[in-house]
Structure formats: C-alpha cells, structure tokens
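Thread: Newbie trying to understand structure tokens

Hi all, I'm a second-year student working on a class project, and my supervisor (Dr. K.) asked me to get a predicted structure for one chain before our next meeting. I've only ever worked with sequences, so writing a 3D structure as a token string is new to me. If someone could post the tokens and maybe explain what I'm looking at, I'd be very grateful. Here's the chain:
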Amino acid sequence: MKPINPSGIYFIKLGPGGEWEERCVEQEQTIRLGFNDANHADCIAGNWEKIRQSYLTSRTAGKATEFANQIKLFYTRDAQTVWVTFYANHMWWCFADEKVVPQPDGTKIRKVVGQWSNKDIAGKPLSLDSLSGKLTQVRGFRGTICGIKELQYAVDRINGKLSPSVSIAIEAKKTLEMSLLSLIQNLTWGDFEILVDLVFSQAGWQRVGVLGKTEKDWDLDLLAPVTGERALVQVKSRSDGKEFRRYVNEFRQSKQHTRLFFIAHSITGDLPVSEPYVNFVGPAELAELVVNAGLSAWLIKKNS
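---
Reply by user tm_fold:
Sure, no problem. This is what the structure looks like when written as tokens:
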C-alpha cells in the first residue's frame, strides 16, 4: 500500500457511546452520522445557517453552532479525508465516498472506500498501547466529529513512519542489546543462572522451592501467581539440538507444568522448531529481556 497524503484527518464517534462501531467497521464499511433531525436537503444545498437555526429552539447558540459545524464536516469533507475512530483497542482509519445517503431512521452514511483498517500501510496493528496519548485522548471528545490536533503524528503512524527521536531511541536500544551479548556470554554459569532468575522475577514469575533444587535436572520451577501457570526453566551456558530435544521430551511428561523455557547463551548446531508452550531463549532474545527488565547495570557490574 502506498503512503497516504490526506487532505485532512478527523475523528468520528460512531454512535452514542460507540454503539455503531461494530456495525460500521465490521459489517457495513460505512461512517455514520446521527443528528437525525438535520434536514438532508438543506445539508446538500449547503444551508448551514438554516441548520444552525433549527437547533436554537432547544440548544444554546454555541451548541447549535457546534452541531451545524459537525454536520457540515460530515457532508463536505472530500474523499481524500481520513476518518479515524477507536474500536476494540485499536485505532481504525478509512477514506469515505463523498456521497451522503440518508437512512430510514434519520441517520446519514457515507460508504468507506475499500474498508476500515486497524493497521498501518505495512500491516502493523495500530493498537492503543502503541499510540501516543496525545492522539488517543481525542476519544474523550464529547461531540461527534472533530479535527485531530496531532495530525502529522496520526498520518505518520498510518504510514508506518516513526519520529526521528523514536528511531534514534530504537537504534540506541538495539546497540545496547548487541553490546550486552558478549557480557552475557562472559558470565560464569552461576551468575548466568542468577541473571535468568532475575529476568523472570522482574516479569512477575515466582520461584517454587530453592534455585536448582526444585526437581532433578531442572534449574527453575516457576509460578505465575495471577494465572496459576507453572513453568519449567532449563539454563545452559552451551547446548545443542540433541540436548534441547531431550528436555522437551521430559517437559512433555510433566503433569503440573504448562510451559518450558530453555535458555542458553551459546548454541551449536540447529535447533528443532519449537512447539506451542516451548520457548527457546537464545543470547539475542535474552539480551533484549535483560534491557527490558532493567538489568543492564547489574550485568555490566558483574563484568567489571
């Protein structure tokens, strides 16, 4: 998909409390406007002052103007406008045909060009937890349609483009992870096992029993206290595919444990493809976990 270059970008709330979100996004591929009492013929003719006047009998002058302006945006924004809404923990976006079609219930719709998307042009999901709060705070808008202040940010995210500062930070994190690889591989076996234990502790796992003494042949027996999930962890300085397969077979025989983590900082030969609930963590993956767990300083100190 080519990068978008919209004429504008607007947030639209699909129904009171979002009651039309599933209908518009997943079923109809439309954007839909309420204001059922707004006369369609007057809207098509551009009689916006008449529309505003129609609300003065029941609304304040400011609110009547606000209503008329939102209706005008729905009717007049061109097909190069991007419409954005938030549904199912994602940001969704689309272009819409310029034709406005009144519905029997008084609502008005515009057909989406193509379909709503909750991914950027490279196919990466636009989940709420990956978006800046400066953009997602528009969800609190009390009206129906408004312009998005973070216009360039929204367009960049749809185009899969990161800001220069974020790109620099990502590269710096990758550089740090690469620099930690040799430090991980330089640890004694005992310190390597402690590092792995710290990584899991930071992730919320709890050790069951004494480190290295929980079960024969296993280094860590872990519990996820929220879900009750039990996991076995095997820590190896060096290993190979044959040893990996042996531990996988032993894990399959466990009646208590639902997940296996096999961790090694040096591997010889090829490893078989992991099966569900069997996780191999190599040096690169472990370096990332160390950084994410805030253990870089600990690792540097151990190598000083």
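A couple of things are worth pointing out once you decode it. Residues 8-158 form one domain. The mean pLDDT is 90. Feel free to ask follow-ups in this thread.
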